[in-house]
Design brief:
Distance between the termini: 30 Å
Order of helices and strands: HHHH
Number of helices: 4
Structural class: mainly alpha
Shape: globular
Length: 73
């Protein structure tokens, strides 16, 4: 069975910051895409689905989620 990678619980401040990054759509595309991956994971979307939506690999999505879980922003 495949490993189920999920983002840790995000607090209100982190959630607002992620939403601002995505809504604003300015700045780094990399930052925007990472924020999108984290939010989709927080909403319960599986890694494979996130990879499809964000046009990247499942490994990249896992890396972003692991990095966020470890270091936050």
């Amino acid at each position: 069975m495949a490993e189920r990678v999920r983002v840790r619980e995000i607090d209100d401040d982190e959630g607002r910051r992620l939403q601002r990054i995505i809504r604003r759509g300015t700045g780094s595309v990399v930052t925007w895409r990472r924020a999108q991956m984290v939010l989709l994971s927080a909403q319960g979307m599986a890694v494979a689905e996130i990879a499809e939506v964000t046009c990247t690999s499942a490994d990249r999505v896992r890396d972003v989620i692991h990095d966020f879980n470890t270091d936050g922003f």
